[in-house]
Design goal:
single chain, alpha/beta, D-Maltodextrin-Binding Protein, domain 2, 3 domains, 5-stranded mixed sheet, 10 helices, globular
Length: 322
């Protein structure tokens, strides 16, 4: 029997994702036995600061990448939204699983919907992207930082520390946690972050057998769309200290002339100075679409907005970098 080792974070959601990929690999390749190498990442350990102040989402992937580079794992399973656009030498982000529901969801034990929240209500979210979009629509709300794993965040909501919180729908769905929350509303007007609701499979680049196995999990439409999103983020230079939303979709996929549409927004975390833009191109031109959208937004002042947004996001502290 061949043995394959998956590096994964030790959180409940990360383990669900890793076991999901383990099952798929063992079904497609009966001669392969998959083991998990569970790692508690720095991003999971530091829970008293916003992610942007501890180096951002790279803290969810760095330890897993180190395990692969040291020969202790063959591949890593990531929530794609947590994977920085820079991949270390010797590794490769080679496969993206089929994307599922990308929605952000409003959760509350008291109020049925976002519109029902009273003026000054306290909403919990860690994400500057969510903060920006929430305050653009409801500038009267008070947004309070929210850290911890999914269960911790839901406990804080139940204890009344927040009137409502906003989380990714897909994580709650995968862990079957929605049934415990009295009121849930998908926020369809929110633009998701890069890579939301898809899993990224990162491998040791020199291992052709692992690449073959990983590529069996790849969903080409998702790969195309998430590449557009990641290209946009890379060109515009947006890190976790700036509120940025970007989402690409394939339209008319069954026709002879499918197209890709990408839409993005950036702005200040207080919901002001918002810049919206979208572009559409034929599917065979998707390779340059993310770059084009980033360059178009840069021409409209995106870099100035991003620079100022990072300065005001956390006025009293400067981000530590990886």
């Amino acid at each position: 029997m061949e043995k394959l080792i998956i590096a994964t974070r030790a959180s409940n959601l990360a383990l669900w994702q890793a076991y999901h990929i383990k099952e798929k690999i063992e079904t497609l390749f009966p001669e392969v036995t998959v083991e998990l190498n569970e790692i508690t990442s720095k991003g999971d350990k530091i829970l008293d600061k916003p992610l942007a102040l501890v180096g951002g989402k790279g803290h969810f992937t760095k330890e897993l990448e180190d395990e692969m580079l040291e020969g202790n794992a063959d591949l890593a399973v990531h929530s794609l939204k947590d994977v920085p656009t820079y991949i270390p030498e010797g590794l490769e982000l080679c496969a993206i699983t089929e994307r599922q529901d990308q929605s952000d969801v409003f959760l509350s034990h008291t109020y049925k919907s976002l519109d029902e929240l009273p003026e000054g209500a306290v909403v919990g979210t860690t994400s500057l992207r969510r903060r920006m979009q929430l305050l653009e629509k409801r500038p009267d709300l008070k947004v309070k930082d929210l850290r911890g794993n999914v269960n911790t965040r839901l406990r804080k909501l139940k204890e009344g520390q927040y009137d409502a919180i906003i989380l990714a729908y897909i994580g709650l769905y995968r862990l079957d946690l929605l049934k415990d929350i009295p009121f849930a509303e998908k926020l369809d007007f929110f633009i998701p972050p890069m890579g939301q609701a898809a899993l990224g499979i990162e491998i040791v680049a020199s291992n052709d057998r692992i690449r073959e196995i990983a590529m069996s999990l790849n969903d080409e439409p998702t790969f195309i769309c998430t590449k557009v999103e990641r290209d946009f983020i890379s060109v515009i230079g947006a890190g976790c200290s700036a509120p940025v939303a970007v989402n690409a979709t394939i339209d008319n996929s069954d026709s002879e002339d499918p197209t890709v549409t990408v839409r993005a927004m950036i702005g200040y975390p207080d919901g002001t100075h918002i810049l919206h833009k979208s572009l559409t191109a034929p599917l065979d031109e998707a390779d340059i679409l993310g770059d084009q959208l980033a360059e178009a937004m840069i021409e409209e002042g995106a870099l100035d907005i991003l620079e100022q947004a990072e300065k005001i996001a956390f006025k009293d502290e400067m981000p530590e970098r990886l």
